[in-house]
Specification:
- The chain has six helices and eight strands; from the N terminus they run βαβαβαβαββαββα.
- By secondary structure, the protein is of the alpha/beta class.
- The strands form two sheets. Strands 1, 2, 3, 4, 5 and 6 form a six-stranded parallel beta sheet that branches. It has a two-stranded antiparallel ribbon with strand order 7-8.
- The chain is globular and about 45 Å long.
Length: about 180
């Protein structure tokens, strides 16, 4: 049975490098898995506990459904001012609710990132792993940070075969953990 991974790009920009990195991941994922990109981040309203009751705002319901129906979660994040984008954090807040029963609870997750900087948004990726863990997700591995993204990522994928190999390791680990969790359920 095919393992499904929900993918979320943390940038709102249509042609962002992190969206391209997520699309590259969809091409590199193993044949027994599928990466389904959820692309409505810009529609998620600001988190408001007053709106937590049913029904959830439509974009929130779709976010929760995409994560709930997937076996795992892959997020590609840029780095803004040394951290994760506010809209991405906002979506995670929504997905973590209701407290103790959100769709992130126990969900296998991995983080990848890309940036023009020499660190490849590594600080944002570390922050995102922390936030996902606090939200209840089961974060796998250290992920992948793609530095100097202008020279590393294009329409054909990653220029550096070493980075492509690292991406496959991240994906294989996420798929394996997701499969084990699904089979145990």
């Amino acid at each position: 049975m095919t393992v499904t991974i929900a993918g979320i790009a943390g940038s709102l920009r249509r042609n962002s490098f992190n969206r391209m990195l997520l699309q590259t991941a969809a091409q590199e994922i193993s044949p027994d898995a599928e990466l389904i990109i959820w692309d409505e981040l810009d529609r998620v309203p600001p988190f408001n506990e007053d709106w937590e009751t049913d029904p959830a705002p439509l974009a929130v319901a779709r976010l929760r459904q995409a994560i709930a129906e997937a076996d795992g979660l892959l997020i590609a994040t840029p780095e803004y001012n040394g951290g994760i984008p506010g809209q991405l954090k906002n979506a995670i807040d929504w997905a973590s609710r209701p407290y103790g029963h959100g769709v992130l609870q126990g969900k296998p997750a991995a983080v990848i990132s890309a940036s023009p900087s020499s660190r490849g948004a590594a600080d944002a990726a570390a922050d995102l792993r922390k936030v996902l863990t606090r939200a209840g997700a089961s974060v796998t591995g250290d992920g992948l940070a793609v530095p100097s993204v202008f020279t590393q990522l294009g329409p054909q994928g990653l220029a550096d075969p070493g980075l492509t190999g690292q991406l496959r390791v991240v994906l294989d680990s996420l798929v394996q953990v997701s499969r084990v969790r699904r089979e145990a359920a």
